[in-house]
Amino acid sequence: MIKLRNLEKSFPTRPSPTYVLRQINLDIQEGDFVTIMGPSGAGKSTLLGIIGFYDHDWTGEYFFNDAPVHLLKGKERAALNKRHIGFVFQKFHLLEDLTVAENLDIPLSYRDIKKSEREAVVADTLDRFGIVGKKDLFPAQLSGGQQQLVAVARAIIAKPAVLLADEPTGNLHTEQGAEIMALFKKLNNAGTTIIQVTHSEANAAYGNRIIRLRDGWMDK
After folding, report:
1. Which residues, 6+ apart, have CB-to-CB distance to 61 below 8 Å?
2. Of 3, 151, 153, 173, which is least surrounded by CB within 10 A?
3. DSSP letter string over the chain?
C-alpha cells in the first residue's frame, strides 16, 4: 500500500545540508497498525507528514497504492490526501472559525455525500464521542482534551483508508486515551491502516509493528 525508497529530507545549511530523514526504506501493507517511535527530533512527525501528503519537499520514491507520488503534481497529491487520509495532528489543527459540528463535516464534504447524510453521520459521531453538547461551540471554547477528542473524531469520520496519528492521546487523561486506542484497534481490525507516532509503549502495544527512528535514520 505504502512503499518508500531512499526517501530523504534536508534543509539547506552551510557548509552542508542538515538532514531530517536519511535513506528511509519502508513498506506498509494494507491493514497494518504501525508505530513510529524515537527521541525528540528523530524525524517521526516529519515522516508522518510526508506519508500523509502534507510535505512535498523531499527526495526519493514514494508509491501509494502503486501511484508514484514523487511524480505527481501538488493538486494530485492533495486529492490523494482528501480521498484516503485521516490525520490526528499533535496540535489539533481544528478550524477556529467553525463549530465542532462544522469541523466534523469538513472531511465528509470532500466525498460525494448528500448534506442530509452528512448531518446524520456528524450527529452519530458526536454521540459516539460524547460531545453532543459541544456541537455548537468553537475550538477556543473547548479544553485541550475536548479539542483532541474532536480532532480524533474528525480524522475518522469519513472512514479513511489510512489513519495517521501524531501523539493521538497526548492531551487526554488515561481513561480517554485508552478509549481512543481501543477505538483505533477496532478500526484497524475492520481494515483501516493505521500509522501512529507516540512515545508511549502502552500505545505502541496496540499495533503490530514498531519502526524506530534516530537522528533521521531507521534502526536496522
Report:
1. 3, 4, 5, 6, 7, 68, 70
2. 173
3. -EEEEEEEEEE--SSSPEEEEEEEEEEE-TT-EEEEE-STTSSHHHHHHHHTT-----EEEEEETTEEGGGS-HHHHHHHHHHHEEEE-TT----TTS-HHHHHHHHHHTSS--HHHHHHHHHHHHHHTT-GGGTTS-GGGS-HHHHHHHHHHHHHTT--SEEEEESTTTTS-HHHHHHHHHHHHHHHHTT-EEEEE-S-HHHHTTSSEEEEEETTEEP-
pTM of the model: 0.91
Which of 7, 54, 10 has the alpha carbon at shortest distance from 26?
A: 7
**120 CA to centre of own chain:** 24
CA distance 201 to 208: 12
Residue 123 neighbours by CB under 8 Å, 6+ apart = 132
Q: pLDDT tens, 51-72?
A: 999 999 999 999 999 999 999 9
Q: Taking the domains of the chain in order of start, what are their residue ranges? A: 2-212
pLDDT digits (tens, 9 = 90+) for 14-61: 999 999 999 999 999 999 999 999 999 999 999 999 999 999 999 999
